[in-house]
Amino acid sequence: MVIKNGKRIMHQAKREIAERALGQALGLLANNPDRDARYVCAAVDHIAKGEKQAIIREWVHDWLAEGKPGREFLSRLVKNIHPNARRRYIARMIVSIFFRDPDIGKRCLEDYGITPPYTMIVSPTMRCNYRCRGCYAASYERKDDMTPEMFDRLLGEAEDIGINFFSIVGGEPFVYPQLLDIIKKHNRSFFQVFTNASLIDKAMAKRLVDMGNVAPQISVNGPKEFTDASRGTGSFDKVIEAMDNLREAGCAFGFSSLITRENVDAICSEEWIDLLVEKGALYGWFFLYMPVGDNPDMNLMPTPEQREQFRVAQRHYQQTKPILLVDFWNYGILTGGCIAGGRAYFHINHRGDVEPCIFCHFATHNVHDCTLAEALGSPFFKSIKESQPFGYNMLLPCPMLDNNEAMWSIVQQHGARPTHEGADKMFTTFKTEMKQYSEGVQEIMNDVWEREDYHEWVPGWVSLCGIPPARLEARRQAYEESKNNGNSA
To answer: Phi and psi at residue 39, in whole multiples of 5°?
Structure first.
């Protein structure tokens, strides 16, 4: 036990040294593009030494090359982000990718049969101060919140198995009274808080900067007419005010946007991306509308053609704008396909149900009845992980949107119970429509996969993501056989 504890302390010390080294590099940035790029490249080279990590080193060097958007991104860090946030959030995020304690991973594999995921998403509350169109948050009360003791326990258990990156969702997380006090206890980890931004005044922005390890992800679904239409008049102005407060305080923050059939043109516009850069967002998450939850509407789903429109726009801006733009579908190549089911992330709702994905409302385990590690080692989660990737074309990663019957089959196999009313509608009520959608997306994305250079990235990225080579080869063979048979699946 003494030896194990000694190894753990040594690993933690190495990780903290790496955080300080990268934090110092970020702290030395002085709006000198050439020198700043050299500092950061040197720090990443020192941290990411492994053979498998070569592809990340190459990407960083290319993104920070002269004339590339990474140079301006570094200038934005100098101008907008307080050193506290650079060190405790940005440096910690980068280091966490490379410094995972191997002894913890070995212990988890031996004791629970799991490899710890990178991040945990948790909803301590489903309450919200808004009453948005079609949202179910209005039906929840304070008595429905996760207890502070359970929230604290979950963060601690996650840290014990090597997870230090947490996303807090809801509801509106900032209505949870104990949120920041509990986060403060876990000051070796870092947190994204997905928020409607209505509660981020100047005092809140300053508090977040003082903590340093919290980055709000401001939910905004496009320009004023789209955001106000779903959330009420004045909600967009609140978003802009919050962004100004955060930028002026020096807080790292991003945004999240739900893409629907109605707002895709606005989301893809250069004017919109430029506004987000101007307001100080460092990065953004995009989510495709999925027909889950209360009263799902298939007419809000982006069409297959719109999904391709978004892919083209996103890739263009990633190469030309000083902001990092990420989604779970078009960037499946970077993650080796779907990341749900505890492979890279999972979700725990306010009741303690352990769900494979924020959109997949099914569970077999609840943390009131078991430990977090036991839930992650469930047969339900193991089946999901052992099925990944669900196909060779990583532009079609999702077992709910792109391979619709895949997740439903696993849910039924393990008797996973629905954790929210209407959880099965995507697979039952809308089965025919989802099949048509999936076939339409496959036809477009298979052509893109063949025509563009995505498939050339597969060996490097998938190796980094830990996908067994034999499984990837089986997916490739199935893809080639399907293609030769004239089948779009």
So the answer is: -55, -50
Say if residues 331 and 106 touch (Cβ distance below 8 Å): no
How would residue 124 be classed by pLDDT, with cut points 50, 70 and 90? very high
Q: Return the residue matching tokens 């719109």.
A: 306
- Sign of the C-alpha dihedral, residues 6, 8, 12, 14? positive
pLDDT of 4 above 50: no
The answer to whether residues 258 and 302 touch, using CB atoms and an 8 Å cutoff, is no
Q: Are 324 and 283 in contact (CB under 8 A)?
A: yes
| Terminal Cα distance for the chain, rounded | 51
- Please give the structure tokens belonging to residue 181: 């006090």
Where b means 16+ CB within 10 Å and e means fewer, 353-373 reads bbbbbbbbbbbbbbbeeebbb
Question: 285 forms bridges with which residues in the sheet?
Answer: 256, 326
Beta strand 324-327 with 119-122: parallel, antiparallel or unpaired? Answer: unpaired
CA distance 56 to 52: 9
DSSP secondary structure letters along 292-308? -SSS--GGGSPPHHHHH
- Tokens 């030769």 locate to 484
* Nearest-angstrom CA–CA distance, 327 and 284: 8
Tell me how far the alpha carbon of residue 427 is from its chain's centroid: 24
Q: What is the pLDDT of residues 168-226, one digit of tens each?
A: 998 899 999 999 999 999 998 999 999 999 999 999 999 999 999 999 999 999 999 99
> Which helix (DSSP H) or strand (DSSP E) does residue 10 occupy?
helix 2-27
Residues 103 and 47 sit within 8 Å (Cβ to Cβ): no
Look at the alpha carbons of 447, 448, 452, 457 in this order and tell me if their dihedral is positive or negative. Answer: negative
Q: Between the CA atoms of 369, 375, 378 and 381, what dihedral angle is there, to the nearest 10 degrees? A: 140
Six-digit token string for 209 = 């900067």
Distant-in-sequence, close-in-space partners of 183: CB < 8 Å, separation ≥ 6: 168, 191, 211, 213, 214
Q: Which helix (H) or strand (E) holds 327?
A: strand 324-327
- Asked whether 128 and 197 are in contact (CB, 8 A), the reply is no
Render pLDDT for 356-372 as a digit per residue (tens, 0 to 9): 999 999 999 999 999 99
In angstroms, the CA 87 to CA 209 distance is 11
Q: Is the dihedral of CA 143, 148, 151, 153 positive or negative?
A: negative
Q: Which two tokens stand for residue 245?
A: 């407060």
- Bridge pairing between strands 362-363 and 417-418: antiparallel
- Strand, helix or coil for residue 282: coil
Distance (Å, whole) CA 307 – CA 289: 11
Residue 12, pLDDT above cutoff 80:
no
